[in-house]
Design goal:
about 200 residues; alpha/beta; seven-stranded mixed β-sheet
Amino acid sequence: MKISMSNGNQKLKATIFNLPAGKTCKSCLSCQSYCYAKKAERQYPNVLPSRNSNLESTKNELFVPEMIKRLDSKKSEFVRLHESGDFYEQGYIQKWFEIFKKTQDKHFYAYTKRDDLFSLDILSRKPKNCTLIYSIDGIITEKDIKKIEIPTGFDKIAMVHETISTCPAQKNKEVMCGRDCQICITGKLNTIVFKKH
């Protein structure tokens, strides 16, 4: 079983675990037409095979202990799940909940559009060292920003706007997520707006 994780990128200082773009996402999402995660799969030949390998690894019965072992070797305090891809079934969610419980020295965070998988029962059992951010599909208007409420059980809500951003890292290239800013991870800001990129 081969699990690939990166130690961050130009914008993010955190351990990152990815799955293939689109393949694990909810079907018929409008964001698939401008998905930034697909761009990396087209641009770099090793990215898609690595993400496909990760997806296969998640289906292996040894995924949980192997992931815990891998995370124990990582120095980063923060772990970003699914910069590409999403939770694809409830059994997979439960595997991550088990990993969260056994790696209390890490703080995990994930954006997800899979409200079809996260029942209130599942959300009530989410370990505290995970921030789960519900991501609105599509490009929202300025009026929508104030109207949209965080669905019950999620920690935060995120949305994309054509021109507006509340993300410090988008506003200033010197700011790095996880190093200089943690508003998405542990911060008090509950509504996060990203400028479309």
